[in-house]
Amino acid sequence: MAKELDKYEQSSFLIIKVTYMYYLSGRSQRRIAKDLGISVTTVSRLLKKGREKNIIEFVIRDPYVECLKLEKDLKKIFGLTDVVIAPAVDGQIIGEESLNDPGDGEVVKKLVALEAARYLQRIITKDDVLGITWGSTIYHMINYLNPAQRIPATFVTLHGSLSYYVNGWDVRVLIRRIAKAFSGKNYSLPTNAMVSSPVLAKLLREEKNVAKVYEMFDKINISIAGMGSLYPELNSILSKPDYLSPDDLKQLQRQHVVGDIALHFFDTEGRECRTDLIDRTLSMDFDAFKNIKQKITVASGVEKAYTAYSALKGGLIDTLIVDNQLAEKILELHHREKDLRKNVYTKFDQ
Questions:
Q1: Looking at per-residue confidence, does 49 or 178 come out higher?
Q2: What is the CA radius of gyration of the chain?
Q3: Cis peptide before 198 (omega within 30 of 0)
Q4: Where would you tag: which of 95, 241, 249, 267 has the fewest CB atoms within 10 A of its CB?
């Protein structure tokens, strides 16, 4: 296992992008700073980091440059606002550490979380209302936030508590930590995420403290979420009996569930699976989630490729932050499906 990543290390993807724009696209440091919304001093520092990390030797070395191609292809195919690719490749240097095993899922997850932390700190403003979900990736992302960058934004949980899993990953813990890191305000649902009946869920939504958070949902303009995978393997923690009963799981599988995001389960086309879990769950409504202006999704590992691809098809993602291997697999699935459709139409025309 590699050593813990440097919490305040600069975004590797941003270093790659700045060096590419400067050395290969011929843009000035001032133009780069304007295009990326950072200072000229930061551009200069990132170019220096690129030389120190041996990412550049007058050219950007493969496979790092491949990350930029993946970014371009994903943005074009899925109409995304932004894409960030964490270069989880042999020899990737992070501070004093080197990633020698790109198959180490935990280290790759931390690389992606680091990119998410740096991305969030680049885009967030004091007027933003940001919704977050639970999970290990969001937990690591918050660990990598630089506390020196204080933006007094507002933070809201997108769903109720799942504290009976890993307490440190629970959304109510995470919302307090991220608000503290940015010196902002936070609002959380003071109840469990899933309850025993739709009647109880309805009563809870009418409680004063719960209703106040539901009102905040309408103000959210950015969300940042991980995602769980339920296809081809049941990798999501939510698939365990502590959350889903065998009957719940069977209902979802009959509707071709592939994953979950913000405690909503969706199928191969990114549509919500219509089960009674919807009425028993305290969370932001699925359609309201889809209408958030900037939905950031953070994911790692090729096992989440089907889930991520389905979410992209369903318009559940605006900004995608993933590792390079997952990005490649998503594009592979897209091209495979495209070729299949082409063959079907060709046979039909004949």
A1: 178
A2: 21
A3: no
A4: 241
Whole-angstrom Cα distance, residue 146 to residue 337?
A: 41
Question: Using CB atoms within 10 A of its CB, is residue 236 exposed (0-12), middle (13-18) or buried (19+)?
Answer: buried
DSSP states along 294-329: EEEEE--SGGGHHHHHHHHHTT--SEEEEEHHHHHH
Predicted structure pTM score: 0.84
CA dist., res. 91 & res. 110, Å (int): 16
- Burial class of 194 by CB neighbour count within 10 A (0 to 12, 13 to 18, 19+): buried
The C-alpha atoms of residue 287 and residue 229 are separated, in whole angstroms, by 20
- Beta-sheet strands, E only, within the chain: 82-86, 92-94, 97-99, 129-132, 154-157, 185-187, 222-225, 228-229, 257-261, 264-267, 294-298, 319-323
Arithmetic mean of pLDDT, 128-144 = 96
Count of residues for the chain?
350
- Asked if the model's pLDDT at residue 300 lies above 70, the reply is yes
- Residue 72 has which token pair? 């371009």
Alpha-carbon distance 85 to 323, whole Å? 5
Percent of the chain, pLDDT > 90?
73
Look-up: residue for tokens 């020899």?
91
